[in-house]
């Protein structure tokens, strides 16, 4: 199972769309996810820590996360959001690495939604104040009435294959020896396949075809959907975009396999990243 997937919560849209029904769940049985800003808090058993709604800061906005065995779960919107990449906060990943998969999925979803609220307190249309609506899955402008919804940004992350070899790259600022699949945001007016082809050509100068979908992963930093794909290249001649990439190389199956095992020519992405799973998929396909 990919990291950040497999949440045990029932999102219960029928509850969050009904203000009276939602209010009925906001009682002493409801649970509040304990967060330090956007950082997870854990109990002595290494699980996510929970409190009650009485533990919420005064005047805090509460987001309805869903139902867990019939109990309503909420999270409080922090004073500030965080749009920095996950790599900028090693302490965060150290904490998350110790979470059980279902807790990690729950935390990832909660982090994304409360972070979005913290960074969208003003209307993009008129600049007026916005208020939480639909249990936290919407914000409404108090001035012009515009509705705003939590966004998820699609990102293609793609394996490029040519003559039994795999293209992998090292981005600018990455540690020496660390390689991963190329990736980039899908732009307005693009299909997934077109986004794959454009990003690969921009970063490597290689044309690809026969793009196929492999798997996807939510990535809450701040809120992407990583769309894992596979494609075939027409040739292996590289023209590297040095404004984004430090290196791009081609690797054989044996080299990729050895690197995933920790004894190859490059440092593979960690198991929590979809690129790690895509590489495993490729060597076994």
Feature tags:
285 residues, alpha+beta, Nucleoside Triphosphate Pyrophosphohydrolase, six-stranded mixed sheet, four-stranded mixed sheet, 7 helices, globular
Describe the 3D structure.
The chain has 285 residues and is α+β, with helices and mostly antiparallel strands. It has two domains: 13-119, no CATH class; 153-284, Nucleoside Triphosphate Pyrophosphohydrolase (Alpha-Beta Complex), CATH 3.90.79. Helices cover 24% and strands 29% of the residues. It has helices at 13-16, 19-25, 90-96, 101-118, 192-204, 253-260, 274-284, and strands at residues 31-33, 35-36, 39-40, 50-51, 62-68, 71-76, 130-133, 138-141, 147-148, 153-162, 165-171, 182-185, 208-219, 224-233, 245-252. The strands form four sheets. Strands 10, 11, 12, 13, 14 and 15 form a six-stranded mixed β-sheet that branches. It has a four-stranded mixed β-sheet with strand order 4-1-6-5. Strand 2 and strand 3 form a beta hairpin. Helix 6 packs across helix 7 (274-284).
């Amino acid at each position: 199972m990919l990291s950040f997937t497999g949440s045990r919560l029932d999102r219960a849209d029928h509850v969050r769309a009904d203000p009276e029904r939602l209010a009925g769940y906001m009682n002493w049985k409801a649970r509040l996810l304990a967060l330090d800003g956007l950082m997870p808090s854990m109990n002595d058993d290494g699980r996510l820590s929970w409190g009650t709604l009485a533990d919420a800061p005064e005047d805090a906005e509460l987001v309805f996360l869903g139902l867990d065995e019939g109990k309503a779960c909420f999270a409080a919107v922090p004073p500030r959001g965080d749009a920095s990449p996950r790599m900028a906060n090693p302490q965060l990943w150290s904490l998350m690495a110790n979470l059980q998969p279902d807790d990690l999925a729950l935390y990832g979803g909660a982090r994304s939604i409360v972070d979005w609220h913290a960074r969208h307190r003003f209307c993009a249309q008129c600049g007026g104040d916005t208020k939480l609506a639909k249990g936290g899955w919407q914000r409404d402008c108090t001035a012009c009435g515009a509705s705003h919804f939590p966004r998820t940004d699609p990102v293609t992350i793609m394996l490029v294959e040519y003559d039994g070899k795999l293209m992998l790259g090292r981005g600018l600022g990455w540690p020496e020896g660390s390689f991963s699949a190329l990736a980039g945001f899908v732009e307005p007016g693009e299909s997934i396949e077109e986004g794959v082809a454009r990003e690969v050509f921009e970063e490597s100068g290689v044309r690809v075809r026969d793009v196929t979908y492999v798997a996807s992963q939510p990535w809450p930093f701040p809120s992407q959907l990583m769309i894992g794909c596979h494609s075939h290249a027409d040739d292996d001649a590289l023209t590297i975009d040095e404004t984004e990439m430090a290196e791009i190389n081609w690797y054989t199956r044996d080299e990729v396999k050895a690197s995933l095992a920790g004894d190859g020519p490059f440092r593979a992405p960690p198991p929590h990243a979809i690129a790690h799973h895509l590489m495993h998929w490729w060597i076994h396909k």
